[in-house]
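Section 4.2 – Deliverable D4.2 (structural model, holo form)

The reporting period included a commitment to supply a predicted holo structure for the target in complex with protoporphyrin IX containing FE. Inputs used:
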Amino acid sequence: MNAVIEAVESKPDVITDRSKVPSVTGGLPLLGNAMQLARDPGKFFYDAYRENGPVFQTNIMGKKWLALAGPESAKLMGSAEGKTCLRSKEVWEGVSKEFGAKYSLVAVDGDIHKRLRKAFQPSFAKGAMRGHYPAVIAVTDDEIDERWESGKEVSVVWAFQRMATHQLGFLSNDHVPSGYEEDIRIAVRNMIMVRAIKIWPEFMAHTPSYKRSRAVLHDIGQKLIDRYHERKANGFEGRRTLIDDAMEMHEADPELLPASDIIQVVVSPYVAGLDTVANTIGSMLYEVLACPEALEGIHKEVDALFAKDEIGEEDLTPKEMPTLHRAMLETLRLHPIAPLAMRVANTDFVYEGVQVKEGELVYMGYTVCHYMEEFFPNPMKFDIHRPVEQYKIPGAFTPYSRGPHTCLGKTLAEMQMMLTMARLFYKLDMSLPEGYVFKKQTFPTPGPNKHFKVIVNGRRH
Ligand code: HEM
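Output (structure tokens):
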């Protein structure tokens, strides 16, 4: 099952003729497979993999794209070959241009990417939360008290987007952007839809509301830079955050981090973490409320957790909070926010007998295994008793992508999600509306759709 990447000359039986590569069936005239992909990308790739194997062609609005899917594609992304033969530049560079930036972590490859990633790793890791658990709880409680009223229905995605925005602002830059949540959401949404996924037309990057929101995001970044200079003049009072890393790096190596790139760096946690966290915990809330056994187990764990005087990352481990942690893993498996990645072939290579040409855009369907019986028996079941070994099978579990661009914030995101959900289940007695059927949206980020509501029956604490 290993990915095969070899020089074409050494393999005379390599398929170079694209008419010999299977095409996904079920498309519509003109639209091709666009609707199937838009409806449920995870299912689309799973079905296509079962029908065609690890390499197939998709037709999106009349244009054929190659897809590399299944465990083979996950392994390829995580391998040394994958590092050489895949790049991200063209996929994400439009987002950096929205900030007028030269480089951005997600849109740069090779040595510069490696250096930037190493420099920013501490600010994006769970260590950024260390010593600040009470403050993150306070930020979370403020939102619970304000938006999750007893006796009311709460729009889950909206409420979690606000909460994640406040938490990320606090964690990354010691700045809670109260009053600007909607601008941040719109700026991030339009950038991703127009510049990364590229399914919204160009004019959506020029609407007055987007331009206003993007200006607000820039303004937040500029104010953080100004605050850095004030803090520097005052001997750096207060806590060290991402802006300190960015400014110091700029001062030490303006080639690697030019002045034009600083704003983009300091607001990047919103671009990378807002919808990803909000949608994942939105799906998790649904799954737990739909599973009485999980809810009961979590209530016991969180009551014990918050009976302690102080809380730190050692209290949120899989060992200490097994049910909550399993619920998070199962959510990441069943509802990945990035069921596939787009990449560009960095060189000619052969994958599973098919030649891929340098410069070609490919879809990497690496979460297909999340739904495969061979990896996760009874795969569509939200099962908090799954042996943990199942997630560890090579290529099986890929919620954070693989390879050089693997999510840099994953340890921080997991602590943020564990703490947020622990606090929510501790504070509130919630239930799903009678007969509710979970409905998903795909864009800009897959997750529950905006109509998903839960009922807050009352406070537990
Ligand atoms: C449930 C939460 C999250 C999930 C599932 C997730 C998933 C991902 C995925 C799939 C990618 C790779 C994109 C690609 O390969 O093209 C990525 C990249 C990234 N994520 Fe996350 N993410 C989450 C939360 C966060 C948070 C909270 C932050 C920061 C505070 C963050 C920071 C980043 C960064 C900086 C990258 C770019 C890494 C690089 O290109 O080297 N993520 N994330």
